[in-house]
Amino acid sequence: MKEKIISKASEMFLKLGFKSVTMDDIAGEMCISKKTIYKYFCNKELLIEESTTTVHKEIHEIINTIISKNYNAIEENFEIRKMFKEMFQSSDDSPIYQLKKHYPEIYEIVIAREINECNTTFEQNIIKGIQQGYYRENINIKNYIQFYYNLVFTIKENISSEKEGQQIELEVLEYHTRAMATPAGVIELEKQLLNYTK
C-alpha cells in the first residue's frame, strides 16, 4: 500500500503541484481513508520526500536506458530532452520551481542528489561526443559541465511555467551543443533540431 500511495502522490504532485495537492485529494483519488495515508506518512512533507526520491530514481533509470541504446552523443541528449517533455507535458507549473518556493528544505535535498547524477551523465556524454568527433577535443570538460548544469537548473528554479521552461531548455541544449560542436557536430545538431520540432 505504501508504494501505491507514493506512486499516486508522485503522479498528482507532478501534474497538479506540490502545494495544491492535499492528503485528502490523494485519499479521494485512491478511494482510501486519509487515516490509511497517515499510517505510512506522518505528514505531507514526508510523502513529498519519498515521492521526489521515487521520481528521481524513475528519471535516472529512463536516462540509463536511453544511454544504453548507444545513440550518438548529440542524439542521446535530444532523446533525454524528449523524455522530460513527455514526462512533464501535463504539468502547468514547473515541479522544481514549486518545490523551491513551497518546500525549500526538500528542494535542497533533491538538488544535492541531482548534482551528482547529472554531472556524471553530462561528463559521460561530453567524453562520448569527443570520441565520436562531434565535440571538440580541446574543451574543458569540467567547466562545460558546470556551464550547462547552471543554465538548466537556473531555468528550472526560476520559471514557473513548465511549457515555457521546456522551450528555453531546448534552446539551452542547442546553445550548449553549438559551443562544443565540431563541423560534423553542427550538422548532427541541425538534424536533431529538425527531428525534435516535427
UniProtKB/TrEMBL annotation:
Gene3D superfamilies: Tetracycline Repressor, domain 2. Keywords: DNA-binding. The keyword DNA-binding applies. GO terms for molecular function: DNA binding. Residues 1-59 form the HTH tetR-type domain. It comes from the Bacteria. Residues 22-41 bind DNA. It holds the Pfam family TetR_N. This is TetR family transcriptional regulator. It comes from Flavobacterium weaverense.
